[in-house]
Amino acid sequence: MSEVKIVEAPPGIEGSGFFATSMDKVVGLARSHSLWPLPFATSCCGIEFMATMGSHYDFARFGSERPSFSPRQADLLMVMGTIAKKMGPVLKQVYLQMAEPRWVIAVGACASSGGIFDTYSVMQGIDEIIPVDVYVPGCPPRPEAIIDGFNKIQELVKNESLRRRESPEYKELLSRYGIQ
Fold first, then answer.
1. pLDDT tens sequence across 124-156
2. Is 110 annotated among the ligand-binding residues?
3. 45 labeled part of a ligand binding site
């Protein structure tokens, strides 16, 4: 949990108390519960994601009931399924069009490592072209695993400093992928 402290009000100020916390924690908490995912599904992992969005698993309880199919209105890219090398530039373009800050989940064995398709035409993990924050294992992963991966992204977002995106380490990471 974030460290929110209730502090007694100074003399002369009405009320029983007020909240004192850092801006990083407030913004992180708000961001973590208002992520707008963009599902980029190409095969069977996409079907599992559809099950996750259904009423039985209720993905909406995490604040992400609005999947966005426009990269400009999304901040979480969920890549699910086999990504062919010809699809790589399209995936990178979608990533670059997303709002900053942006996060990426690689769902399933194919998006994480190429899966069983060790061929010339299949990308052996999307981390060849874009940075990945969370990997969800499985072939295909169960909805519970997708929810667990989403919870890990929420934790990462909640604890991320507002200054991380401006750090030299982050800029160096993006430059390795050819992103400025």
1. 999 999 999 999 999 989 999 999 999 999 999
2. yes
3. yes
